[in-house]
Amino acid sequence: MIGSSGAEPLLRVQDLHVEFATEDGVVHAVDGIDYEVARGRTLGIVGESGSGKTVTSLTTLGLTRAQGARVSGQIMFEGRDLVALPEAELRSVRGNDIAMVFQDPLSSLHPFFKVGTQLVEAVRAHQDVSKAAARERAIEFLGLVGIPDPGRRVDEYPHEFSGGMRQRAMIAMALVNEPKLLIADEPTTALDVTVQAQILALLDRLQRELGMAIVIITHDLGVVAEVADDIAVMYAGRIVEMASTEVVFDGPEHPYTWGLLKSIPTLSSSREQDLVPISGTPPSLIRRPSGCHFHPRCPYSQPSHERIDPQLKPVPDAPEHHVACLLEIDVRRRLWAELRAGRRPEEARATVGVPEEPR
Amino acid sequence: MSRYIIRRLLWGVVLLVIVLALLFVMFRVLPTADPAKLRAGRLQSPKIIAEIRHNLGLDKSLPAQFWVYLKNLFLHFDLGYSYYSNAPVKELIFNRLPATLSLVAGGAVVWVVTGLGVGIVSARRAGSRMDRASMGSALVLVSAPEYWLGLIVLYLFASDIGQVRLFPGAGSYAGLTAEPVKWFESMILPWLVVAAGTAAIYARLIRGSLIETMGEDYIRTARAKGLSERRVVLRHGLRSAINPIVTILGLDIGALLGSSVLVETVFNIPGIGRLNYIAITHADFPIVQGTVLLAALFIIVINIVVDIAYAYLDPRVRYS
Question: Could you tell me the pTM of the whole model?
Answer without folding.
Answer: 0.81
